[in-house]
Amino acid sequence: MMRAKNRQNEQAMIPDALQFELLRGHASPLHRQLYLRIRDAILVGQLPPGARLPATRVLAADLGISRGTVDQAYGQLLAEGFLLSRAAAGTVVHPQLEARRLDPSPPSAAGPTPVLADSSEPAPPRPFQLGLPALDAFPRKLWARLAGRRARALSLTGLNYPDPAGYPPLREAIVRHLALFRGIQCSADQIFITSGFQSALGLAVHALLRPGDPVWMEDPGYFRASGALRLAGARLAPAPVDRDGLRVDEAIRRAPDARMAYCTPSHHSPLGVALSLPRRLELLDWAARRQAWIVEDDYDGEFRYDGPPLPALRSLDRSGRVLYIGSFSKTLFPGLRLGYLVAPASEAARFAEACNLLSPAPSILDQATAADFLSQGHFARHIKRMRALYAQRRAALAAALQAECGARLRLDGQAVGLQLTAWLPDGEDDRAAAARLNARGLAGQPLSAFSLEGGHPPALLLGFANVPAEQAPALARRLREALDAR
């Protein structure tokens, strides 16, 4: 009786705007449908500023989906400034948001106009969107030719279950690439193909951690990594970051018994700094002494514009404590959903067993196409072209923002990666600023969305890879108008 009453109370906490049916089997993923539904309900005023959202467990049960799906939708809305997390008080619509309508007409009694269109095409990327390479510059015809050739040559054995650790020729091609460009020496049986970074991180967590294990997490740090670690039951220990990267001494002071450290040493996400050599050696020494693990997320280490890319932290590891994660989302295109993990030699058998159970690898055709792209030299040539293009686009956007915004924004000087950090005046709310950009069709993430403990100066993170140089002045003007709006 009491349980039934509790369930009724929890259902009563769900706003009318969120009582709807998700379209299963639709081209748009469930988390994307939920994200759009909540976002539009906020924009049309059905979820007013300060309105409390149901707990992820409650909403997941009501919609018949996993809690992780709700976490993904909430996480995106938090990052974009639509929602605000208030710890024990729960998640609310950001109080500083003004209710905006998508159009002048009032919402119908049935709720917001459905967001999902008839087209199966996803929405185009918005200017300044993070995490995207130059999609307009990808050699699609070459990729299509390689993919078509692989599809036509598919044999009967190719229709069977693939190797759960990944397509062997792709693993061999990655071994050669890492030796040439990232200073990493390994064998193919240490390479495990995954469907992107998050899949690789999940594989590492399943293989090496137990629920409740403490993990160092860079602060600020990549919010999808911290969210995935929390979801896996890890106990996060914030590790502060300064101009030399992760502060190893402070991390040791806070959590000396950590079982794992997550870091982005070649290009910190989101601040853009590189982990200094003394701290790299200090981090490796700690892991060796404590028999702890280091997860190195090398998400865009290939893109440095004022010199050659920095060697990976893994290249300095002599104790076998570093797990290196790479992804083709930034170097090729994110729709490919292709990444990989390099396990220490001592743990290769354990990871092979985990792969056999979890099967994280994507389509064999995609893997075979990527293997051809790497082994035939197209990948190295593509990276070289993209470095030149991104340097040009970065410089053009930086100049346009400086001319348009002046002292309103202070840009960082890190000539690396695919994003600019634009520092706002002290005291400004970067989540509210990001929400104003979003309301005008622009992207950009608030730095505070990456923070675990807060206290960082306000800033906006702006992706530039998909901003052609000739469009930079107009987009900088739109950004300035969005920032000036109140």
Automatic annotation (TrEMBL):
Segments of this protein annotated with the region Disordered: 98-123
Superkingdom, natural source: Bacteria
SUPFAM superfamilies, per the entry: PLP-dependent transferases, Winged helix' DNA-binding domain
HTH gntR-type domain mapped to chain residues: 28-96
One Pfam family hit: Aminotran_1_2
Annotated coiled-coil segments of the chain: none
Keywords tagged on the record: Aminotransferase, DNA-binding, Pyridoxal phosphate, Transcription, Transcription regulation, Transferase
One annotated GO molecular function: transaminase activity
InterPro entries with a match to the protein in the record: Aminotransferase_I/II_large, HTH_trans_reg/aminotransferase, PyrdxlP-dep_Trfase, PyrdxlP-dep_Trfase_major, Tscrpt_reg_HTH_GntR, WH-like_DNA-bd_sf, WH_DNA-bd_sf
Record PANTHER family: HTH-TYPE TRANSCRIPTIONAL REGULATORY PROTEIN GABR (PTHR46577)
Family the entry assigns: In the C-terminal section; belongs to the class-I pyridoxal-phosphate-dependent aminotransferase family.
Name of the protein in question: Putative 8-amino-7-oxononanoate synthase
Organism: Chromobacterium indicum
